[in-house]
Amino acid sequence: MPRPLSAEELLARGPMDESPELRILFHRLNNQLGIILAHAELLESKAGDDRLQARAAQVVASTLEAMGTAKEIRRLIIPS
User: Which residue in 67, 56, 57, 73 sits closest to 10, CA to CA?
Assistant: First the structure.
């Protein structure tokens, strides 16, 4: 079985045509990240102590960063 390509290898290929499959994958990824974000924000607001609240805030920040990264990847690989 061939090894999966890294993000760098995929980006080095240059712009790709936007296929329906690619659009669906980005949609699914954003939906999954949105669910993680919603749960982390809820946990952050209901956390009983500072340590748990800080850990939930880290998940919120990381999820937002991942959403931004997905948006940037889409911008780089799909010509506008």
Answer: 73
